[in-house]
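Before the break, one more example. Copy the sequence into your notebook; we will annotate it together after we see the structure.
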Amino acid sequence: MTASSISEYIDQYDGDVQQRLLTVYQMIKSAVPAEAVESISWRMPTFKLGVEPLFFFTGTKRHVGFYPTPQAITHFSTALSGYGTTEHAIQLPHNAPLPIELIREIIDWRLQQLPSDEA
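Here is what the structure looks like once it is written out:
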C-alpha cells in the first residue's frame, strides 16, 4: 500500500517502530513553521517549505531513517559518529533509544539555515 498522508504512512507500522516514527513526526511538526507542508515524497513522509524540502523520514526493518539534508549531517558529523549515516540520511537503530536531544538540535539547526523570510 502506498500511503497518501504521513499519518497513513505511520499507521502501516506496528508497536515500537510506529511509536518511533510518531515521535520523529511530532518533533518535526512542532518545530517547523506553520506554513510548512506535509506530504509523501519519494514514498517517505516529507516536510517542505515552498519548494524547499526540510525533512524526510522513513521506517525500515532495522532503523528509522532521518533525512535532514546533507549539510546538517556534515554539521553534526561528530555527534553522529555512533550512528550509520549516508550523505543524505541518519540511521537511528530500533535497538537503541531515539536520541531525542540530538534530533531536536538537528531540527533546530536545519530551521536556522532557512532564509529569514522563510523561517
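The domain at 6-112 is CATH 3.90.1150.200 (Aspartate Aminotransferase, domain 1). The mean pLDDT is 94. Try to locate both features in your own notes.
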